[in-house]
Design goal:
It is a single chain. This protein is globular. The chain has a 4-stranded antiparallel sheet. The protein folds into 2 domains: 7-87; 101-186, Arc Repressor Mutant, subunit A (Orthogonal Bundle), CATH 1.10.10. The chain has helices spanning 86-97, 102-117, 133-140, 144-156, 174-177, 179-186; strands spanning 7-10, 20-25, 27-32, 40-46, 50-52, 61-65, 70-73, 119-121, 124-127, 160-162, 170-172. A hairpin with a 7-residue loop joins strand 3 (27-32) and strand 4 (40-46). The longest helix is centred in the middle third of the chain and has 16 residues, at 102-117. By secondary structure, it is of the alpha+beta class.
Length: 192
């Protein structure tokens, strides 16, 4: 069990034979240590998703509980439909970084987050996590200034808004998330 707000570090020299974890419950942010000391976000996993430990062989893995997280050992079998593994996240984030413009990259990231961990609430999709502009910039391969400018454009277009209060959830308009409309807005093909 990892308590909300706490981070479990898995060192590369770990030798207990576990090859994969299954997220039984909760929302987990997975990162790796980088040479500059800042963790690199690999993805976000929720109940039913798998955490293979191949990445952990080369660097310290950071498992940050966004909500209380329960992990169990899994056999490393392929995810069932609707489940995702850390490998799925890593591939999708790499593909997002290959898109041409900051607008395309940011739109694709927001759509991916909404599809994987967001929930529909009335007229919005709500992301249950808080990411800083610097963290988003790192995920999409742009500067924090560029991300801030893109967020300003999206706010003016009423495609995003930040909820007031301690949770500070990010709300995304269906026009930004749903494939047909979002493709017209960003010139993208649907992800996944």
């Amino acid at each position: 069990m990892i308590a909300e707000g706490h981070t479990l570090l898995l060192e590369p020299d770990r030798q207990d034979g576990v090859r994969c974890f299954l997220v039984e419950r909760g929302l987990l942010k997975v990162s790796l240590s980088s040479t500059d000391g800042q963790p690199i976000t690999l993805g976000f996993l929720q109940a039913g998703d798998q955490l293979p430990l191949e990445f952990q062989r080369r660097a310290t893995m950071h498992l940050e509980a966004i909500t209380p997280v329960q992990l169990s050992e899994c056999g490393g079998e392929a995810p069932q439909p609707g489940q995702h593994s850390l490998n799925d996240w890593a591939v999708d984030l790499l593909l997002i970084r290959r898109l041409t413009t900051a607008e395309q990259r940011l739109t694709a990231l927001l759509r991916l987050l909404a599809e994987r961990i967001g929930r529909r609430h009335k007229d919005w999709y709500v992301l249950p996590i808080q990411l800083t502009h610097a963290q988003i910039a790192d995920l999409i391969g742009h500067t924090q200034v560029t991300v801030t400018q893109q967020f300003s454009l999206l706010r003016r277009a009423r495609l995003i808004e930040t909820c007031r209060g301690p949770a500070g959830d990010l709300r995304l308009a269906p026009g930004l998330v749903e494939p047909v409309v979002a493709d017209l807005v960003a010139g993208l093909r649907p992800i996944g």
